[in-house]
Design brief:
The structure is a single chain. The protein is an all-alpha fold. The chain has helices spanning about 1-10, 15-30, 40-60, 75-95, 100, 105-110, 115-120, 125-140, 155-175, 180-195, 215-230, 240-260, 260-265.
């Protein structure tokens, strides 16, 4: 009743914003319900993941990052990759089944269905914020910043959100229509991780294969973040490729979702 009253008092343009805020509050309450640490898990997750990969690859396997002259070069490289990868997979993992999970609710209480995938993306914001803050703080501690290039960090965060939202919209609708999509995404995400230079630097990949990374939108974003924040060299065509992926996934995902809403309505 309270939500309906708020929506009734707002204009049509603010309808979706009110619903998104309501569902975001609901998302955080349900996600951390019964948890002792609560929202602190947004800090624990990236730090624990960072520690595991750093010990395995940075210490035991002694991976080094050429072109990054600092004592903790691999740690910075790893954190730059995880700042992109962890929020991305969190959003996709929760968002792909968001429409199917609330199918009965959408049938009984009609609302803009794109709110649900958008909430999955919004739920990853605390993890993203923690990861980027850690990255910038550690980079400054290692003497790599701040620099003028860091002014582009908000643009990169916005780029990450657009890419993630576009793909989440596409996959959530595709999974609702074809339920095999969820299983495929779970498998593809594992493979995707190793096709993205997160735990290994691109310099360890033969140069003849570098161009193939331009076909990986997450890899493009990771490499640009490493270039902007850490000052690592960026290969030719990287920024145009990232811009093209933003257009294809951001606009394409939104177009697919909107064009298939009639099929969603019929199924409900």
């Amino acid at each position: 009743m309270r939500l309906r009253a708020q929506v009734a008092q707002q204009g049509a343009g603010q309808h979706a914003w009110v619903l998104w805020r309501y569902w975001m509050a609901r998302e955080f309450k349900t996600r951390y319900a019964g948890s002792v640490l609560g929202l602190a898990w947004a800090f624990v997750q990236p730090v624990a993941t960072l520690a595991i990969f750093y010990v395995l690859f940075g210490r035991l396997l002694a991976v080094r990052v050429p072109g990054l002259d600092t004592n903790q070069g691999y740690l910075l490289h790893l954190l730059a990759g995880l700042a992109v990868w962890l929020p991305f997979t969190d959003s996709i993992g929760r968002g792909v089944g968001s429409l199917a999970a609330y199918e009965d609710f959408l049938r009984k209480q009609p609302m803009p269905s794109e709110i649900l995938p958008a909430v999955s993306v919004g739920g990853s914001l605390p993890v993203m914020a923690v990861a980027y803050v850690l990255l910038l703080a550690l980079a400054m501690a290692q003497g790599l910043g701040p620099s003028a290039a860091w002014l582009l960090v908000p643009v990169l965060v916005l780029t990450q959100l657009v890419l993630t939202l576009g793909l989440t919209l596409f996959l959530s609708m595709a999974h609702f229509l074809w339920r095999d999509v969820g299983s495929f995404v779970a498998f593809a995400t594992q493979l995707w991780f190793y096709l993205t230079p997160v735990v290994y630097p691109l310099s360890q990949v033969p140069e003849s294969y570098h161009v193939w990374y331009l076909l990986n939108p997450v890899a493009c974003l990771v490499l640009v973040v490493q270039g902007v924040v850490l000052g690592m060299p960026m290969m030719s065509g990287l920024v145009p490729a990232l811009a093209l992926w933003v257009l294809l996934l951001g606009c394409g995902g939104w177009w697919f979702f909107r064009s298939m809403k009639s099929a969603l309505g019929e199924a409900l």
